[in-house]
Amino acid sequence: MLAEGGIDPKLEHIDRTQVLVVDGEKFRFRFAERLTKTPHQPTPEERARVRRGETYPRVPSWDYGGSGSLRLELAEGTSHYHATTWEDGKQGRVEDRLAEVVPTIRRLVVAIKERRVRAEEQARIYAARESERYRLESARKKGAERVRSLVGEAARWHEATLLRRYAEALRAAMVVAGSAKPTNEREEPFVNELLRAAAALDPIPSRIRRVEPGEAVITEVMVPAGND
User: Fold this and answer.
1) What is the distance between the alpha carbons of residues 202 and 156, in angstroms, rounded to a whole number?
2) Are 88 and 169 members of one domain?
3) CA 192, 193, 199, 201: dihedral to nearest 10 degrees?
4) What is the C-alpha R_g of the chain?
5) What is the spatial distance between Cα 23 and Cα 159, in angstroms, rounded to a whole number?
6) Between β-strands 62-76 and 84-87, what pairing exists: parallel, antiparallel or unpaired?
7) Is 169 within the bounds of a domain?
8) What's the CA gap between 148 and 124, in Å, rounded?
9) Does residue 59 belong to any structural domain of this protein?
């Protein structure tokens, strides 16, 4: 805080922002003036209000005014962050350095376009990398799903094989017990049920039902004994 008054670097009057378009690139520029800050000297009317105990309007502690110290800001786009600035100081006054503004804008236009080209190239590389990652991930998922499908198909074939073997074993037992005709008649529908269930589970018939020209035709599937 300035106890004795003077130019306060934190206080300034900012002129309305102007927009400038150069070669398709938008810039914003504005002038700002540093303000002076001096202790307020109460007027007779203010002293009278204080004596009467009136607190509103409040008597200010400081007076502010223009200092004549200028700053020019030139910023890209719509923001004034990271702006290029010229201000009164050791290098001279702003009005004496205005010739620097046009070359600066030209350099900024070139830099903006180069930066945009780099950003577009980086975006293209990123998009290609993401596309490849997605392709590989999709292929991995499809492969895993295919393996699960094949394992399920093999499991159905195995279950169908077990049912057929069970039916064969049951029929063999029925032959051994051939004298027990009522038993055989009672078990035969069950054997047929086993075979129908095996046929419904077995994926092989659906695999070989349609044979394209030149393809091998599977006429018999041999199930090695003991491969449960």
Assistant:
1) 6
2) no
3) -160
4) 46
5) 75
6) antiparallel
7) yes
8) 36
9) yes
Give the domain extent around 202: 151-208
Separation in Å, CA 77 to CA 23, 26, 100: 13, 5, 20
What is residue 83's predicted lDDT score, i.e. its pLDDT? 79
- pLDDT at residue number 3: 45
The answer to whether residue 106 sits within a structural domain is: no
| Structure confidence by residue, pLDDT tens digits, 6-53 | 545 455 556 667 888 899 998 888 888 888 888 888 899 988 888 888
Please report the pLDDT score of residue 221 as a whole number.
45
pLDDT in tens, 172-197: 888 777 655 555 667 788 899 999 99
Q: φ and ψ at 29, to 5 degrees?
A: -135, 150
Helix (H, G, I), strand (E, B) or coil at 56: coil
pTM: 0.52
Number of domains forming the structure of the chain: 2
Beta strand spans in the chain (E):
6-14, 18-22, 25-39, 62-76, 84-87
